[in-house]
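Sample 1 of the test manifest.
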Amino acid sequence: MMSDEAYRTVKDLPTEEFMVPGNPLCAGCGGLLAVRLFHKALGGKVVWVNAAGCMTMLSVYPYSPLQSSWLYTAFASAPAGAQGIRDALDLLMKKGKISPDEDLKVVVVTGDGAAYDIGLQSTLGAVQRNLDFYYLCYDNEAYGNTGFQMSSATPYGSSSATTEPTGSFPEGNTGHKKDLFEVWKSQKPAYLATISAARTVDFLQKVEKSMKISGPKLFISPVGCPTGWGYDPQDTIRIEKLGIETGMWPLKEYIDGKVKHTYVPRALKPVEQYLETQSRYRHLFKPARNEDALAIIQEDINRYWAEASKAEGFEIRLIGT
Amino acid sequence: MKSLSLMTGNAAAAWGARLARVDYIPAYPITPQTEIIETLSSWIRNGEMDAKLVQLESEHSMLTAAGAASSTGARVFTATSSQGLLYGMEMLYNITGWRTPLVLVNVSRALAAPITLEPDHNDVLAARDSGFLQLHAENCQEIVDMILLSYRLAEDRKVMLPAIVNLDGFYLSFTRERVALPDMKKVAEFLPEYNGSNPFRASRPVAKASSVLSSNLYSYFRYQMHISSLNALSLLGRISGEFESLFGRSYGPVEEFMTDDADYVLVMTNSFSTIGKQAVVRMRSRGVRAGLLRIRMLRPFPADAIASVLAGKRAVAVFDQNIAPGSGGIIYPEIVSSLYHLKNRPEDVFPVIGGLGGKQITMGEMEMIFEMMHKGHWSAEGPHSPLYLMRNDEIESVKKNLQIAGQVVRQ
Ligand SMILES: Cc1ncc(C[n+]2csc(CCOP(=O)(O)OP(=O)(O)O)c2C)c(N)n1
Ligand code: SF4
Ligand SMILES: [Mg+2]
């Protein structure tokens, strides 16, 4: 396929920048990196449709680091904003009021709080209507902009501003992360994938592939968040790589009714190696190791990959097997 | 050539959108508004109207799509009622901030709880401070005309704000009246094609609805919205003049019904004004100089027009078909504040609350309001305590229901 040809190595990364330096987001923000890469793959003719979250700080009047267009909507309804823009562009072109050269790719960009929680209804509505749009969810696994409270994307065992580890709740968050990939998949979108800037070529190839497809093109990108997760900003890529190598963050795509993992580690690394890097998991190690919680997290990962390898017929070495 | 047709208020609203040649209609069903979107959908599907109607999954999304499409340069129409308007409330405030000149028809219906169907104005008045212009219709003709006027006002570069046209559920939405449908060609003359301001286009990137972290800027944008809304008031005269020269009907921000030499004036809005006007005629036949002032434009608020009509009157009563629990009527204080600076302000401004949940008002009650103004006798609690309309037969029916409910509970 042509998409596979366009991006073979990191050297194929487009040099053109659509996001100039300078914005109020945190140093080392993984979400920002995902947005920047996504933009490189899409090209410049884009209108971003944003929901409340850290990315809302990209465009603070009178500045915008983007060379493209931007609409901030509200927390819950960015996909409906995409619907309005897409429909308006289509009907104005059809009525001959604007030329096709003026067309734009309509791209929703939200955090996990919008995607997993308050905006889920709006997303499923747009997908059900087969809207031709892109959705990039940068998943930092909590409500980051309001100070890192738990969202339904927060993993089991993570501390957050509302899941503080205490004597009664030693593991921190007792809930488990919602499987948004499966929820979105249930509506059979045209294209669906998880992507990570730490595996750049896989990321670019997926976006490129989706660009040839009409309909909803949905992406979930787990992203490092130094501020919320508690690590040094320079470690974002290192931690994202660990997320992938420990199997916490499976990279996969759904197209034509089938799920395929696009990167399979030959042998998983123990999840502790990932957890140890972030202070949101510190209570699982200090003052004493919480063996039960650590085992639950590792077992979840093992179970996930055992099922996936069976379904797709690939080999993978799990932890403790 | 005028063509007269018999149509419901909802059909009149649909005709307003059709005549305005709207491009885009995001929709969501709710009684009593639904007939509007059904009518538009049918016209589009039968090729009678060149527009796109999309049914969203909520009014919150409906209004988001409406604002976003308007920001992209489409002429947008939408409609809702009651719970739907409140469900989308967050977006009402957003899309006024986006300065999107779309038109939303609200078919008034009282709010839950308890859930009910018939109208009062707590729904539309909850949107009072959103920045939407608000025009309130008394009859089906006004619905069509107000939609056309609204687009002209909203799309004026000095305004650039969305507008609500309000009509009462049931009393107007399902009532058939004669309507003179304006001629399509003349409408095109009155309301030319919409050219959006800074629409989303590939050749010209634009950031809209950006966040603002400076309170100076925030205040500036809010003041700017206020001034733009007030601009709609000064533009109405000219635009209505153009409308009159083409269609023979003109609309000021208020309607004066026998107010010129009146001593006693009742202030009303919307469809119940028709009963108020009949009461005025009856009172006149009994020698009481009665009049009625109907507010057509509620936002921007025509304080000067109201003051000039009510200056020097002996007494005024304000009929609020809404209730702000713990305060009283919502429109009453707005009327009072527009009169306070007058040297010859009316001595008494009496508050009346009635018609909640569509509760009927008899001619007798209307006449009683004029009698009370005439005699200077107001409610026992004093002249500034509202008169809450509830007839004895209505109280009896309530008692009967309470009794039944009580018996059920005891079983
Ligand atoms: C209706 C509504 N409720 C709550 C908020 C407050 N709020 C703004 S941003 C935010 C967190 C967003 O979290 P997420 O979507 O994960 O994005 P992130 O901040 O992590 O980038 C919240 C709760 C809001 N803006 N609107
Ligand atoms: S809090 Fe996290 S997601 Fe938000 S800007 Fe900072 S690093 Fe990025
Ligand atoms: Mg988040």
